[in-house]
Design a protein that fits this description.
It is an enzyme of class 2 (transferase). The chain is of the alpha+beta class. The chain is about 40% helix and about 10% strand.
Amino acid sequence: MGNTCVGPSLSKNGFFQSVSATIWRNRSNKVDLPTSDGKATGEGTVATPPKPNTDAPQPVKIQDDEAKPAKVPEAESKPAPERPPTDQPTKPYHVNRASSVAGLQVEFVLKSKTENLKDVYSLGRKLGQGQFGTTYLCVEKATGMEYACKSILKRKLTTEEDVEDVRREIQIMHHLSGNPNVISIKEAYEDAVAVHVVMELCAGGELFDRIIQKGHYTERKAAELAKVIVGVVEACHSMGVMHRDLKPENFLFVNQMEDAPLKTIDFGLSIFFQPEIFTDVVGSPYYVAPEVLKKRYGPEADVWSAGVIAEHLSEDEIAGLKEMFKMIDTDNSGQITYEELKAGLEKFGANLKESEIYALMQAADVDNSGTIDYGEFIAATLHLNKIEREDHLFAAFSYFDKDGSGYITQDELQQACQEFGIEDVRLEDMIRDVDQDN
C-alpha cells in the first residue's frame, strides 16, 4: 500500500531511506474562541445633578414627546446609561455562538438533553488529542473509578454529516458492547461546548508503542496478537460493522502487564454495512486496502488492514521512527511543516535543493494539507525503505544475470561464486531449493 501514498522519486532521498514504519495521526485544528473580558469600563457612570426632583420624572415622559430641545442637558446624560445595555449583549452572544455547533441548526447532537458531565465526573490530565477533540482521564465522583473521556468539540462539527458521524460512532460502540476485545462505552453526555463519551480506561498504551519498545514480537506472541485482531474483525463483521481504520494506534492494552488484554478503539470512521459497495476513501495511508483507493470496496478492506498489522508485529522496522518524527516536529504540533522538514534534512546531512524538498513534501503529504502528519511520515518512510531493499535485490540479481535474460542459470551462479572466491557450494541443491517452477 505504500506505493499508493508516495512517489517513486522519493527513493533517492537518503534521509527517508534510513527510516520506516506505521501510520497517519490525527490532526489538530486550532480555532481561537473569542472571549469576553467582562470588565466594566465606567463610561456609563455620568455625573448627574443631585436632586432635581422636579425634572426627574420628565425624562421618562419625554420619550414619547418632542420637547427634547428644552431638556438638552438631560438628553446628553441619558445616552450614557443607555450605552452599556447596547454594548454588553454583543459579547456574550458572540461567545455563545462560537461555542455552539457552528452553522448547524441542531439543538442537541445526541438528540436529547443529558446530565452535566462535571456533576458526575472529575476531569484529569489529557490522554490524547484527535482531529475533533481531546481524550482526558476522568474519575467518577460516586465510586472513584477511573475512565477515559473523549470530548468532541461541537464547533468543529461544521456539517450535518459530522454530527451524524458522532451519533453513529456512539451507536456502534453501544452495538458492539460486551465484546472482550472492543472498548466498552459507559455513557455519553452533552453540553453547550462538546459531546463527551465516557468509556473504559486502557492504561497499557498503544500496540504501536509496545512494538516500538520491544523492537518486534516473537512469532508466537505475534501470532497471539494477530489472532485477537482478526477476531475483532470477525466479531465486527458478524454484527454488521466495518471498522475502516484498523491500525496499531487503534489497539490499546488494558494495563501494563505483558499479557494484558488488547482492545480496539476509535470507531469514528466505522459504519454499518449491508451487501453493498462503498466508494468513500477513508482510513490510514499505509494500512488502507487498494480497493478503498479504487473507491470500490466492502468489509474485506478490514481484513487487508489486519494483515498489514500482523506483518508488522514480527518486524523491527518501526523502532526509532517515532523519536525521529518528534525530532523533526520541533514545535510538537503533530505536523511537520516545510520549514521543519528542510531543517530536519539539513540536520541529518541531506543536502537537497529547495525544489527537491518541495517535491518530497508533496509526495508524502497524502491529504494535501500542506503538512506531513505522523501517519504520512511513517507511510512514506516504510515505503521508501522497501523500495531501497528492492533496488538492492534487483542490483544483486542483475549482477548474477550476466546475459540479461531475466534468469540466473547454474553457470552464471557458478561464475559469480568464483569471482567472490566462494568454494564448496552445492549449486545444484541451491537452485533446486529456489526454483519453484522447475
